What we know:
The complex is a heterodimer of chains A (371) and B (334).
Chain A: H1 12-47, H2 52-71, H3 80-98, H4 104-116, H5 135-170, H6 175-183, H7 191-205, H8 223-260, H9 264-271, H10 276-285, H11 289-302, H12 308-313, H13 319-328, H14 332-360, H15 362-370
Helix pairs in contact in A: 1-4, 1-14, 1-15, 2-3, 5-8, 5-14, 7-8, 9-10, 11-14, 14-15
Chain B: E1 5-18, E2 21-34, E3 38-43, H1 49-57, E4 64-73, E5 76-77, H2 83-89, E6 95-98, H3 112-124, H4 128-142, H5 158-170, E7 176-180, H6 188-205, E8 208-213, H7 216-222, E9 225-230, E10 233-239, H8 240-245, H9 250-257, E11 305-307, E12 311-313
Parallel strand pairs in B: 3-8, 3-9, 6-7, 7-8
Antiparallel strand pairs in B: 1-2, 1-4, 4-5, 9-10, 10-12, 11-12
Helix pairs in contact in B: 3-4, 3-5, 4-5
Amino acid sequence: xxxxxxxxxxxxxxxxxxxxxxxxxxxxxxxxxxxxxxxxxxxxxxxxxxxxxxxxxxxxxxxxxxxxxxxxxxxxxxxxxxxxxxxxxxxxxxxxxxxxxxxxxxxxxxxxxxxxxxxxxxxxxxxxxxxxxxxxxxxxxxxxxxxxxxxxxxxxxxxxxxxxxxxxxxxxxxxxxxxxxxxxxxxxxxxxxxxxxxxxxxxxxxxxxxxxxxxxxxxxxxxxxxxxxxxxxxxxxxxxxxxxxxxxxxxxxxxxxxxxxxxxxxxxxxxxxxxxxxxxxxxxxxxxxxxxxxxxxxxxxxxxxxxxxxxxxxxxxxxxxxxxxxxxxxxxxxxxxxxxxxxxxxxxxxxxxxxxxxxxxxxxxxxxxxx
Amino acid sequence: xxxxxxxxxxxxxxxxxxxxxxxxxxxxxxxxxxxxxxxxxxxxxxxxxxxxxxxxxxxxxxxxxxxxxxxxxxxxxxxxxxxxxxxxxxxxxxxxxxxxxxxxxxxxxxxxxxxxxxxxxxxxxxxxxxxxxxxxxxxxxxxxxxxxxxxxxxxxxxxxxxxxxxxxxxxxxxxxxxxxxxxxxxxxxxxxxxxxxxxxxxxxxxxxxxxxxxxxxxxxxxxxxxxxxxxxxxxxxxxxxxxxxxxxxxxxxxxxxxxxxxxxxxxxxxxxxxxxxxxxxxxxxxxxxxxxxxxxxxxxxxxxxxxxxxxxxxxxxxxxxxxxxxxxxxxxxx
Lengths: 371, 334
């Protein structure tokens, strides 16, 4: 970095930068860990309704035990007292197993410990398509479908809109620019809304594409055929999401670039006679890289939650519908599992962003370390 | 016309298109600048000074309605150059600019030395080392330690940033540097030291300057010539000594009377009224409304009248034919 011939003792600036960076990274890491801890603990309390869910669980255990004892022919000839004792014994066994006899506060801390170690436990009612009750398996099974669809849609929207916006900001006020602005309100309708129309048109009026699902049933054995089938199924939901967000996205990036291209240093660069592609790269994109990367990374982790309605409309087996079902079933471990993973992803992303800011922006790196 | 004319500007015009109508920011401006001369363009806020500078440098906003006139730099008629040729051949290499608000004229994420050296690397294709070595020379010339070359702009004080921008303007050894309010955001001591740096540059490099300012006191330090601008037009162009001692145009006189001076009993006097709107300005003399010497002829556009060798005044008071001039009170200088 210090490459000029008259840099004061070579390497000293670099060392200074490095020390500041490490100090800064350490502080941020501690702060983020604390944030995750608080976030996860809050989720545990909320998802358990502050312990209320335990009461429900207790009632459920009791009724299950008495059902089981009554239905079992082996216990037919027991006297009511004996039977009640048996039921009480079974209930207390189950309570002990689940440690429901301990106060919620104690167990919530225990939950927290396990959650922070990513030990997500077993689901109460839900199970994965392969039959596993492990929350981890349930989530991992749905992850690829969500990442594939939402990842490609968002990447497409992001890159298309940034480059289109840069292009338009150069042609501010042109017919093309004005028509994109006019189209921006089309994003008021959500993706699933466009999805319904697209399904109507391309799956029924002109039946060229499948109406929903991720792959034909039964799934093709050949890997290439499988991929082609997934691609065909992806096309409509992808288009729906693209349509619903592209114009507003171009519009907002265009405004962003317009604001930043009227900075004094950009005007100075123009007066300096620099070619316009250099101005765009070094004077517009480079100083604004931090907010651009921020929105890019936040978009990436936003994929984690999927999109509930769109997944329903296209019958897409993603995380959105999974979490929706989990909430409906009050399947606390699945909800908590989802949130814990999201919290970690968010924390890692924010940490990454902090480091990137420091690398990209000397004001953060130098000032931040000094403080 | 003279042996050493560097810049010749004829009937320059720049009109902006706005929602409220056409703004005539620069409306028929003509002047000449000789080599190694410093011309101060004086004027109130909004009189079109900065527009004049931007027009000369071709860094214009998008809402241009009309531009006109001829600009000749040395032997080059600038109007005939395409934007691309102007950028490659004139901008920064022959004519550079220090912009208003140059506090923010440096890219916040690039080291100062790199930015100063950048025009040489990009426009002349110099190597990094060579460009940085040259940048170090101009840093010394404008009075900043070369240690600051490896710093980022936010690590520099306002005065140092201003000097760095000045260094950037001088790095390619242009014949002409346009300074748009270079010191108006700085404290008086810093202003003085920057003016001293400019004087040194002028003496050592023979650079010509156009200094655009509203600050009469600071400008008098550097000025060889003064052009006074009012409502998009030049009302008086004269040698600095003549202008400051014996202003001719009524506006010049009133402006000089409004400047407070040391060791002088006389109270500074404000000029009553407001400059006219540049939307559809009035016909005739634009200062007429505020002028104590107004007479019938002022309803006609004033001609630029030559007084002596080196002074031009746009005022009918100096016309040959003064028959219809009523009660003119003689009020030369002080």
